[in-house]
Specification:
With 260 residues, this protein is mainly α. The chain has helices spanning 2-43, 52-55, 63-72, 78-101, 105-123, 128-154, 161-183, 191-211, 216-231, 234-246, 248-259.
């Protein structure tokens, strides 16, 4: 029995030493494999870096490529198809303005005014009501001045003081309509439409002034005040305040009756 036990103990020791050896070999193999992988990764070439244009962000084509696309004018190339007419019209407009402006001093001044107006229109492209009011104002000034001059010539007058006073009065009323529409902080309606309505009333007053020159400016003044009050809800506020003033004596009597 003792011999059998000793044999079993030796077998166990041998199996344990084999297990330890096999585990050590496995660890060495794993280390070698990791080392080989690291060496391969170091020796492998680095992947090419993606540029921003390759990732999908829009990039402008180089100049030779753009010229080639402009010359070819392929239907699928929307950039080239839209860009070529713009370039042609821009060059034609620039040459025309240069040719007209270099002809005389008055033409040069006219070209400068056109460019200033175009620039102002570009900056005011999102302010439609203001543009409408600025267009309506000079048209009204021109019409009222023309009517005043024609009426004075038709009456056979000298065309001096009376016409000048009427035109100055129309200018003042037109500026009053333009400023009155923008004086209110919270305008209930559209400000440009308010100015247009006031200008129409002023043109009607100028037409009446061709027959009765004395009443033209007062009619225009009253008409513009009425338009500004109606469009700005001034009549509603005035009506409410009038009711408050008329109801004040009744409130005073009621308080006096309660006190007694």
């Amino acid at each position: 029995m003792a011999g059998a036990n000793a044999a079993r103990a030796k077998k166990r020791q041998v199996s344990e030493t084999k297990g330890v050896g096999s585990a050590g070999e496995r660890e060495d193999r794993q280390r070698n494999n990791l080392g080989d992988k690291q060496r391969r990764a170091d020796l492998a070439p680095a992947p090419p870096r993606r540029s921003k244009s390759a990732e999908g962000s829009p990039s402008r084509p180089p100049l030779p490529d753009l010229l080639r696309r402009l010359v070819r004018q392929e239907r699928e190339d929307t950039l080239a198809v839209k860009l070529l007419p713009r370039v042609v019209f821009t060059l034609a407009a620039g040459y025309t303005l240069f040719y007209v402006g270099s002809s005389s001093a008055s033409a040069f001044i006219g070209v400068c005014l056109v460019l200033v107006l175009a620039l102002a229109g570009w900056f005011l492209r999102h302010r439609g009501q203001l543009v409408l009011a600025l267009i309506s104002t000079p048209v009204t000034l021109a019409l009222t001045g023309y009517m005043a001059t024609v009426a004075e010539v038709a009456r056979g007058g000298p065309g001096g003081a009376i016409t000048g006073q009427a035109v100055f009065g129309y200018w003042a009323l037109t500026g009053m309509a333009l400023l009155g529409a923008w004086m209110l902080k919270d305008h209930p309606g559209r400000r440009g439409i308010t100015v247009v309505i006031a200008d129409v009333v002023l043109i009607f007053a100028a037409f009446v002034g061709t027959l009765f020159p004395v009443v033209a400016v007062p009619i225009g003044f009253l008409g513009i005040v009425a338009v500004l009050m109606i469009r700005g809800r001034g009549f509603t506020a005035m009506h409410q305040r009038t009711k408050t003033v008329l109801a004040l004596p009744a409130r005073i009597r009621a308080r006096m009756g309660k006190g007694s």
